[in-house]
Each structure stands twice: as C-alpha cells, then as structure tokens.
Amino acid sequence: MLAVVVYCYSTLQVPLVGYIAGKQSLGAYRSALMLVAGLDLLYSSINSLLLPRLVAWRRKGPTFLWHRQKELLFLFLFSGGAISAGVISLAPVVYRRFLGVAFTEAILPFQILVVGRLAVFVGQIFAWSLSALHLDRQFFLASLAGAVFSVGANLLFVPCYGIVAAAVVSVLSEIVVHGLCFISVKRYISRAIAIQPPTLYNMICRICDSSDLVPAIDLGLQPWCNHFLRRQEIGSEPFYPLRVVYCRNCGAAQLDFTVKKEVMFGDHTYLSGVTKSLGNTSAGSLARLTDGSFERLSRRAF
C-alpha cells in the first residue's frame, strides 16, 4: 500500500503531464527530471546513512535525539543549500550548451525541482526518524496526504501553467510529506520529554544516608521492564535512567533512580502470588533450607 501511495505523489505525475500538456512538454519535463536525478542520488546516498545513527540517538533519550536532529537540520540546510544554489546558477548554461534551444523551456522547472530535492534532503532527517521511532503509520499518513495533494494539484494547475506548475506541485508535495513527518516527530519528542524523569545524580545512600556517591555503571535510558507493550504503544514508551552508584562511605552499590510507584504498580502484569514458576522456585529453596543443603554449601565455600 505504501508503494502505491509513494508512486502517486512521486511518479504518477509524469504520465499526467504527458496526457495534459502533450509530448513536447513531457520531453522537456523529463529532461529536468533526469538531470535532477543526479543531485537526488547524491542527497539520497547521504540520507541512507541516517537510520543507524537515529536509532542509536533514540536509545540515549528523546532530548538527545532532538538536539542531534536540529544539528543535522542546520548542517543539511547549509551544505545542501550551497550545492543547490550552484546547480541552479549553472542550469541555463548546461541546457543551452548540451541540450539545445528545444529544451530551454525546462530550465525553470529544473531549477524548481532542485529546490524540491533540497527539501527532501532536509526532510529525510525526520522521515527516517519516524522509522527509528517505529512510527510507520505516521509516515504512511504523511505519504498519503502528499499523494492526494499531488494528484489533485496536477490535475488543477498543469492544464493552465504547464510543466512549471508540475515542478511547483512536485516541490509542494514533498514539503507536505516531510512537513507532516516533522510534525509527527516533534509531537513524539515533546510527549517523551514531558514524561522523562530527571537524569541528575541527586540522592543519598539508601543504607547510610551518605551523599558521597559516585557513578559505577551507567546503562543509559531503559524502558520499564515490567510493562508488556500493546501494539499501539510501541515506540512511545517512556525511558528511565538505569545506573548503579557506589557509596564511598559504606561500600553499598545501588540504583540512583527509582521509578515512581504509580508506574511500577499502576498496570502491574507480573504478580508473584499467581506466578507458578516463582512459587515452584520458592518451594525448592525452602526445601533446601530445611534439609541442610545451604549449610553444607556454605561450609564448602568458607
């Protein structure tokens, strides 16, 4: 289904232009598409490297992910903007020297399409983020909105304004898709940050009340292990710091953050009283205590 939707907003435009504007205009528009494909290849090769990094950043928490996305946004805008500006300025020379006068009507559509590829280059930061966050439904809905806009706008404007309108519709369709991806990611990040617990060391020792604690093991942010996710919850679960600190006063190792009891027991799916395997284990431990097995083991150990 997603492939059909993507085809509608990205590829269906070409036969529509041929049907509405005629073969000559279609040929000129195809020349613009073929030339811009080289720029698209450059940008997409960079975008393809995003997913593993976004997944790694997601594991470090929503705030970290959002800061990294903003850094990428400015980096892509600056570098892609410079490349796109150079390509746009060279377009008239390339068309007149290599393609001839017959294709000069495609110069402006080509320049518009270059702007569209820049929008895709930047927008893929958030499109790939939806994949990293397991928000595939949101990406499908964004693509569907882009497809509906593309088909409708092409049918409405191409008969009046030709291939220039087709290029503008292509750019606006990409902006619709990636703009909605941005909104979905921003909403997810905002919700995640709102429920994110504090991550600063701020506690006293649970044994001796000393504040002389030092970090020993930091496993980063982890989801609450006793909550079995429903399908609609995947990708939106809260994360909590999982860190072991060491008390230099009494030598006790302990966790420095406790999940709130409302979270731990609000929807508690692991109940020791009705868990048969836990009951069997406890019964076996009791049997070994009463027959002296633990006493014999302790003597061997010491």
Annotation keywords:
302 residues; mainly alpha; 2 domains; 3-stranded antiparallel beta sheet
Description:
- It is a single chain.
- By secondary structure, this protein is mainly alpha-helical.
- It folds into 2 domains: 2-194, no CATH class; 200-272, no CATH class.
- Helix content is 68%, strand content 8%.
- It is built from 10 helices and 3 strands.
- The protein has helices spanning 2-10, 13-21, 23-47, 50-59, 62-99, 107-132, 136-194, 261-266, 276-290, 293-301, and strands at 213-223, 239-247, 253-255.
- It has a 3-stranded antiparallel beta sheet, with no helix packed on it.
- Helix 2 packs across helix 7 (136-194).
- The longest helix has 59 residues, at 136-194.
- The chain is elongated and about 95 Å long.
- The N and C termini lie far apart (67 Å).
- The model has no long low-confidence stretch (mean pLDDT 83).
What does the overall shape look like? elongated
Structural class from helices and strands?
mainly alpha
What is the strand content? 5-15%
Low-confidence runs: none
Average pLDDT score: 83
Measure the end-to-end span: 67 Å
Strand arrangement, major sheet? 1-2-3
Element string (H = helix, E = strand): HHHHHHHEEEHHH
Query: Biggest sheet, open or closed, and with what strands and sense?
Result: 3 strands, antiparallel
Number of helices: 10
Number of strands: 3
What is the total domain count? 2
Helical fraction? 55-70%
In angstroms, what is the radius of gyration? 29 Å
